[in-house]
Every structure is written in structure tokens, then in C-alpha cells.
Write a structure and sequence with these properties.
The structure holds two protein chains of two kinds. By secondary structure, chain A is an alpha+beta fold. Chain A contains 15 helices and eleven strands. In chain A, strand 8 and strand 9 form a beta hairpin. In chain A, helix 1 crosses helix 3, helix 3 runs antiparallel to helix 4 and helix 4 runs antiparallel to helix 5. The longest helix of chain A is centred in the middle third of the chain and has 40 residues. In chain B, helix 2 packs parallel to helix 5. The chains are: A alpha+beta, B alpha+beta.
Chain lengths: 476, 211
């Protein structure tokens, strides 16, 4: 929405209250004698949000008295709305008060409740503030104005909700760190107890339920014959590797933040922690190893805006090759070149997307060599595409892959495509089978997320095993 | 007699509960095995479609159509944007592209942009509260039944009880898994097909079909 129509000034000589509006001082009324006119800012925002052209209406009124009367009329309409807002505000803040959570609530439950409150307080607050929110927030886009940020003019109404969200968010972050730290301790404790055992043959996927229960309970019976060990360690093998790659479990607060464990929600975050704990265990036992360096690639993860997944996945690749690019700059470049398009719906929402013929073109334009395996191209066999993906990870540290988003996010509402960066794969030491892949997903802001092979393949298959392999042999 | 009925009921309940134990992956695999799903998946990458459908657009359930004059038969499918915002259900916007394909080569696979305006955000993109398992189980049943009933619709052959049962299952699953915001668009895709469904004792509830 353009601000220009609101830079309208009444003529002070005619005895009017001067309408003074700018981005710095929205809704400040000054009388011709310079004295400020005492008016509630929310009344002004209500007027701007609900009347068609209040500035013109106001400025064309003939006298100061009629202008005051106009403001009084607006107040009479906004007062009931304000009363409703006050009531809703009390209800929302009371329903989303962290003090409501009893002190003996288990850590996981408390975190789950806090994360739900976090989401709710802003969503409900925005709804309650509806009549006072002006101007309308812009949608997520790198191509337009403020990139989807909420306007500063929302602050007077939204401040109590922002403040509560901030408290909830801080508390949730603390608890998330604690969850990760507790899991790390359990894994470390378990690893120290089983050190020296030569084990194997158990696939991570097969035993996840039992071994996670075991990690949770900290139950490890030390035994040299293995018979008394829990399920995970029942079987012995002799191919334990002496030097192992870095543990997939995060080793520092920074690594944990980069991975965005809880970005999709509490349950999904716990699932990821579980997966990573099992992978650490699996590495320690010499059952599997990681190809590629997912943690290194996690540093480049960003949250995409709009439908820019394909653009921002390429941003991550270019960053990993040390190129000086920005998410916004690449989105603009893709838009100009016609690789990416945005549509504004009548209702105001922006919908963006990349046409499939343009896969990997930004990488090519920035000097990388690309090979595209399109869903309709050859070879089409799943096994061939998987082998190509494996080679790309081994040689170049990753590849771009098209998947069906809903299958990756456990969300039936999206059968659309989505591009992600695969940054590594987990390979069994016993039979060299791929157990799963590590991905960076700009749609959720998650990095180094382990996805079991079966789940990955289902999401990949639904998008025709689309694959873009890249390397820097032709880099300019 | 009553005991026999009870045991039959128990057996059926056991079968149903066994079915319910399958995870969403099992149902995805089953869905992906249908010829219809494979053809529909491929469509968005066809040359006439790939430059009008952004990869991120979702696709609808295919609906059979036939042209009386030329005898062509096939399926129509809609591609539409989904508006996603954290904390609220995803919303389906008006479809922007219509895809046409067939399983027997009767019509050439192609896409056309719809005359519809870049419309308002409609309603939920997925039925409220549906789980992944229910969704993919419903969708695999839906596609399997659609593969059975579409040839009947195309040929206009008389239907037996089994065929009518398949139509009933198709409509049941359609109500369960289709996008509630797009029902009017589904009607519009192939009004003749929905008339045929109605003639055979089934119909979709909700708003009347748009003409």
C-alpha cells in the first residue's frame, strides 16, 4: 500500500487542525497554533484501517469544529471496538501465561505447551487487533518493499502480545537447549559405557524404538559377551572402524541452533533429537558412517520467503563455494531472468514459484557446471537416480533434489513440489547400504536433518526423482 | 445365527483394525503404484505444462471427462497455489492451471491456464484434522476406485452392484480427502461425470455446482 495519499496537508490558514502524517510521526495532529491535538493513536489507526479515504474526508471538512466532530464520530465507533480488544487482550494473555504451567510439569510437556502458546499469542493477538492494524502487512517476498515484515504502526496494539511472545520464546529456547543437552548427556553416558565393544548388524531403522527407550532410561548393562546388553547391542560384528567421522549429534549450542530442531514443532524436534542420538550411537558402534559434511553445510541454511525454495537452495550451494551472494539478490536475479515468478492474489497474498525447466540455472549462471536429471528425462530408474545422488554427495558434497513437500513435512495439505539441498548420506558399514540422507530445507529452516531412506524416497518419487548435480569444474 | 453374525463382524473389525495399523508410508506406496497417480505425477513436467505450472503448486484429484463427438476420454486435474502460514491451516487458492491427460493416449497430455481470475484464497487445502495415515489411505482407495469406475463412465455400460459399490467408495473417499475449498471447481471440471455419479445414487454435499 502506498503511503503517498496520506502525505496530505490541510491548509492551516483556513482555521483547520493540521493533518500531519509521515512515516516518522504517523497520526500526529497539530493545531494551527502549534499545540498538539490530544488524540488516541489507536483511534487514528482505527480510522485509517476502517474508513475508505479518511485523510481526504478529514482535510476537506470546512471548519475546525467539523474536524473535531469527525474525530469524535470515529471515536464513538472505535470505542466499542477498543473495549472488545481490551477484553480479548486480557483473555489471550491469561490463556497464554507461562505461569499457568505447573512447576512439576515434565520438561518435554512444558516445552510443548510453551511452543503452542508462542504460536497462539501472536495469531490470536493479530486477530484481536484486526480493526486497529494499519497498514496491512506485506507478504513474504524478496521482491517487494519490506519483505513481509510487520509494520511499526502495529506496535501500539500488538505490543502486549509481542511482549508475551518474547517471554514465551525465551523460555522455550532455554528448554529446547536443555532438551538437547539432556539428550547429549544420555548419549555420552551410553557411549562411555559401551566403549570398546565390537558390535553391529543392527540397522538403525529397525531398532530405533528400543534403543531410544534405552537412551531415555540410561539403561546399559556392561557385559563382555553382549548377552545382557539391551536390544541394540545384541549382535556383534568385527568391522568396527578405528577412525570415525564426526558425530552427527550437535556438539555445541551454535550447531544446535543452526540445525533448527524444533522449527516444525515439538514432536518433530524430539523425533530429530532421537534420530541424531541413534546416529551418534551407530557411529560409535561402527555400524554406519556419514558421507559428506552436513554440519558444515548447515551454516548456510536460511528460511525462504514465499515460494523461493529452488532459488534459496541454490543460494546455499553458491555460499558453500564461497560466492558473494545474498538470498534477496538471487531472488531478484531469478525473477529478472524469468526463472522465478510471483503472483499476487486478489486477496493480497503473494504466491511464488519456480518453473521446473529452470532447475539449477542460477548455479550455471554463477559459473558452476550442472547436470539436470528431470522427472521426464533419462535415465529415469530410481536406482540410477539414487546412485547419481550418492556419487554427487561423495564427489561434490551434495545435490539439489525435488520432493513433494507434504510428504517431507508430514502435512497432507501440500502436494506441491519443493526443492531441498541434500548434504550427506548415512551408509551402513556392514553392507554399504544407504540408511538415509541429511538435508537442508529452506522451507522449514532446518539443517542437517536426517531423513530415513524410505521416507526420503517416497517424497522424492512423488516428484519424479528430480535431481540437479553440480560441481565447479567450469567455475569462472 | 446371531453368533455367526457377531463373529463375522469381529472378523471384519479385525481386518479393518489391521488395515488401520499400516503407516502412511504403506499407503503412499500403494497410491504411487496406481497408474492414475503415476500419470498425474508426470503431467506437471510435460513440455506444455512445465512452463505454466510452478513446481510449488499443488494438484487436485483427477476427474474423468469424455467428449461425445470425438469419443476422446481422459482426466482433468487442477493445479493451484497453497497459502501457508505458521500456526494456521494451509489454504487453497483458486486453481490457475488445468491439466488434461489420459491413460490410453486418447488425448494428448497438455495444460491450459484457466480463465479464472487470480482469485480469493478459498478454504482449507486439506480436510480439518486429517492424519497422514487417513489421508493417504483414503487417497489410495480413491485412486484405485477411480481407475475402476472411470472406464464404466467412459463406456456408458450398465452397472452391476459391485460397480455401484465402487462408485460409493469413490465418493466416500472423495469427501474425506479432497480439498474442501475446491468442490465447486471439481464440479466445473466435468459436470457430466458428476451427473453420472448422481444418476448412480451418489452426490457431493455442500454448495450447488457452478455452471
Amino acid at each position: 500500500m502506498s503511503l503517498l495519499p496520506y502525505f496530505a496537508f490541510a491548509i492551516p490558514d483556513h482555521g483547520k487542525i493540521v493533518w500531519k502524517f509521515s512515516e516518522k510521526e504517523p497520526c500526529v495532529f497539530n493545531h494551527k497554533d502549534g499545540a498538539p491535538y490530544d488524540n488516541d493513536i489507536l483511534v487514528c489507526y482505527y480510522m485509517l484501517a476502517n474508513l475508505k479515504d479518511p485523510v481526504a474526508q478529514f482535510n476537506h471538512l470546512p471548519t475546525e469544529a467539523s474536524q473535531k466532530e469527525f474525530l469524535r464520530m470515529v471515536s464513538s465507533k472505535s470505542d466499542p471496538a477498543f473495549a472488545r480488544l481490551a477484553k480479548k487482550e486480557r483473555m489471550i494473555l491469561s490463556a497464554n501465561d507461562p505461569k499457568n504451567i505447573s512447576s512439576d510439569t515434565p520438561l518435554g510437556v512444558e516445552l510443548h505447551i510453551l511452543m503452542m502458546m508462542e504460536q497462539r499469542v501472536l495469531k490470536d493477538g493479530k486477530k484481536a487487533c484486526g480493526p486497529f492494524l494499519w497498514p496491512k502487512a506485506e507478504d513474504d517476498s524478496y521482491l517487494y518493499k519490506t519483505n513481509g515484515e510487520w509494520p511499526k504502526t502495529w506496535r501500539p496494539c500488538m505490543n502486549p502480545f509481542y511482549a508475551r511472545w518474547s517471554v514465551l520464546n525465551q523460555k522455550a529456547q532455554e528448554l529446547q537447549s536443555e532438551e538437547v543437552s539432556q539428550t547429549q548427556k544420555k548419549v555420552q553416558s551410553l557411549l562411555s559405557k559401551i566403549k570398546g565393544f565390537k558390535t553391529g548388524t543392527v540397522s538403525v531403522a529397525q531398532t530405533s524404538a528400543q534403543s531410544w527407550a534405552m537412551i531415555n532410561q540410561g539403561e546399559v548393562v556392561e557385559s563382555r559377551n553382549g548377552k545382557e546388553l539391551p536390544n541394540l547391542l545384541r549382535h556383534f560384528v568385527s568391522d568396527q572402524k578405528s577412525s570415525r567421522p564426526p558425530k552427527p549429534h550437535p556438539l555445541s549450542e551454535l550447531e544446535y541452533r543452526q540445525r533448527g530442531y524444533f522449527n516444525r514443532g515439538y514432536a518433530e524436534g524430539m523425533e530429530r533429537l532421537k534420530d541424531d542420538a541413534l546416529l551418534s550411537l551407530s557411529h560409535s558402534l561402527g555400524l554406519s558412517h556419514t558421507v559428506g559434511n552436513p554440519q558444515e553445510k548447515a551454516k548456510n541454511i536460511i528460511y525462504q520467503k514465499g515460494g523461493t525454495c529452488a532459488v534459496e537452495a541454490q543460494y546455499e550451494v553458491l555460499k558453500s563455494y564461497g560466492q558473494n551472494v545474498t538470498p534477496k539478490g538471487l531472488a531478484e536475479e531469478a525473477f529478472k531472468k524469468g526463472y522465478y515468478s510471483e503472483v499476487q492474489l486478489k486477496s493480497g497474498e503473494l504466491i511464488g514459484g519456480t518453473f521446473s525447466g529452470n532447475d539449477g540455472k542460477l548455479l550455471r549462471d554463477h559459473g558452476l557446471n550442472i547436470k539436470v536429471f528431470s522427472p521426464t528425462g533419462k535415465p529415469a530408474a530410481a536406482s540410477v537416480r539414487s546412485a547419481e545422488l550418492g556419487q554427487a554427495i561423495e564427489k561434490n558434497g551434495g545435490a539439489l533434489v525435488g520432493v513433494e513437500a507434504g510428504r517431507l513435512w508430514n502435512d497432507p495439505s501440500s502436494s506441491g513440489g519443493h526443492q531441498i539441498l541434500v548434504t550427506g548420506e548415512e551408509v551402513s558399514n556392514k553392507n554399504a547400504q544407504v540408511l538415509g540422507y541429511y538435508i537442508n530445507d529452506t522451507g522449514t529452516g532446518e539443517a542437517a536433518r536426517f531423513v530415513p531412506k524410505k521416507d526420503f524416497d517416497r517424497a522424492w518419487r512423488a516428484h519424479g526423482y528430480e535431481l540437479v548435480v553440480f560441481n565447479e569444474t567450469t567455475k569462472k | 445365527m446371531r453368533q455367526q453374525k457377531n463373529s463375522r463382524f469381529l472378523f471384519l473389525a479385525l481386518l479393518l483394525s489391521l488395515g488401520a495399523c499400516k503407516n502412511s508410508g504403506y499407503w503412499m506406496d500403494r497410491l504411487d503404484k496406481t497408474q492414475l497417480s503415476q500419470a498425474e505425477n508426470k503431467l506437471r513436467f510435460e513440455s506444455s505444462c512445465s512452463h505454466v505450472i510452478p513446481e510449488e503448486f499443488s494438484r487436485s484429484i483427477p476427474i474423468p471427462f469424455k467428449i461425445k463427438k470425438g469419443g476422446e476420454t481422459g482426466f482433468k486435474v487442477l493445479f493451484y497455489p497453497v497459502v501457508m502460514e505458521s500456526g494456521i491451516p494451509s489454504m487453497a487458492a483458486s486453481p490457475l492451471v488445468e491439466g488434461i491427460f489420459s491413460l490410453d493416449g486418447s488425448v494428448a497430455d497438455h495444460c491450459i491456464t484457466t480463465a479464472e481470475e487470480k482469485g480469493q484464497v478459498l478454504r482449507r487445502a486439506a480436510p480439518a484434522g486429517i492424519s497422514m495415515v487417513s489421508y493417504y489411505r483414503g487417497k489410495s482407495f480413491l485412486y484405485e476406485n477411480l481407475e475402476k469406475i472411470a472406464p464404466l463412465y467412459f463406456s456408458g455400460a450398465p452397472l452391476n452392484d459391485k460397480n455401484l459399490k465402487n462408485i460409493q467408495t469413490f465418493v466416500q473417499e472423495f469427501k474425506l480427502v479432497s480439498e474442501p475449498g475446491l468442490w465447486a471447481n471439481y464440479y466445473r471440471l466435468s459436470p457430466e461425470f458428476w451427473k453420472w455419479i448422481k444418476q448412480n445414487g451418489q452426490s457431493l454435499p455442500g454448495p450447488p455446482p457452478l455452471q
